[in-house]
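Please, structure for the following, as tokens.
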Amino acid sequence: MVRKKLPVGIDDFKEIIESDCYFADKSLLIDELLSKRSKVTLLPRPRRFGKTLNMSMLNYFFNIEDKDSNRKLFEGLAISYTDKMIYQGEYPVIYISLKDIKVADWELCLNKLYLLLQNEYDKYGLNLERRRESQENALLDLSKFLYEKCNKKVVILIDEYDTPLVTAHSEGYYNEAIFFFRNFLSAALKGNPYLEFAVLTGILRVAKESIFSGLNNLAVSTILDNEFNHFGLTEEEVEELLKYYELEYELEDVKKWYNGYRFGKELVYNPWSLINFASKNELNPYWVNTSDNSLIRELLAKNDSKVTDDLKIVFSGNEIEEVITENIIFSDLEDVDTVWSLMLFSGYLTYDKVEISEITGAKTYFLKIPNYEVQSFFKNTFIKEYSHGKTAMYFKMIEDLYRGEMDRFEFKFKELYLSAVSYHDAGDSEKYYHHFILGLLLTLGDKYVITSNRESGYGRYDIALEPKNKKNYGLIFEFKVGNENSIEEKAKKALTQIDEKRYDISMKNNGVSKIIKIGMAFSGKDVAISSEID
């Protein structure tokens, strides 16, 4: 049996259909758009969940150019059995994607946008002036031309509208970018007499006051809504795909790695990962290695104590409760609390349920890591952040700790600590060192229940790792801060404190018989460690 090719890296609808590639039919997106018929629809979804392919499909469906040949692309698809086929090939379409506008400064951004827009103008033998004012009105002017040429209003499709803004924020030219793109989008979408309707995709629902100011005809459907759920793969679609490629025996592992995203009431899989898995038959983190993680890395790099504590919880397979802001204001991205909204909408977290306050109306979401692929991203992010490139040493150090090889652990920890910690970061606060160590240990969250500052025995330990497999070593850490002449003594004192205050009692009561007790003392870039195995 000759099977269809998998469309790895192909997001052009026509190419997929004409090349007879495997295709999960999402054509009823067209039916829903036409049924709801909003003037402007914004559909934020995570990267690699089929946004560009769906936008390409809309282009081939509505475009008046090549109407007859494009109609054949939809034969046998769900949309072909609806009454919406009367709209096929009925409109001139402007289709642009901003996903590749990722450059280091504003002039390069403006130049790259000009080249993209000129390419659209070239289709009709038109020339776009390089002046900023001309670029701001480029979509409006082109829609006017197409209206006069075809005597029909225009459909505007803008894919990944927020990519230039995310990049601008990371690269430091956000103020210039937001001013320009606010005018650019408003000219095309607000009061444009030549516009039939428009569809935009992106990752974030950027706050209206930031970019959609004055646009009263905007309908938004995010992953929190039950509308427009034509992105990602449903369980039924995944089972069908695996069966087609004789990989159905892998279903449980595939669930563990790639399932778990919630879009409205639907649980969906990551299509990019599924296609790559089916192509290679290897369970690997495909999606997280292709996405732009710069904003999330920036927020995680702040080493904020609350973020670290909450990530400790989700690493352990539990949920955290957070109030989510649907409208992202980029100026708020300096606030680490925004990290949860950003991670949810970007696909790094998902949610089980939501509670609405009867008093304030605030929505609290119960967030968790969706699957093993995303968990691997967090692990690797923390490893790179805390090891400063010494990832091989980090992994060996963690293995030594896990096996109770304390001399080896101590040697590697001291070397890694020396390169990872700055004099400017370190100080006389035990809290800094506490969160540094906690960050190092978070990658063990799948094997341990990690807790900190909890009561046990006659006091509160600093950090404890209780093994999920009771046959493995439990770990208890106690920290002290001193000067370079006293840290050896302080480390021994920390170890003695674990024994005297019986911090191990809770773990022993839970059936853990082997416990490693570790006292650490810090002074700037100097560290002393005392340990014993009970």
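The first strand starts at residue 40 and ends at 44. The first helix runs from residue 13 to 18.
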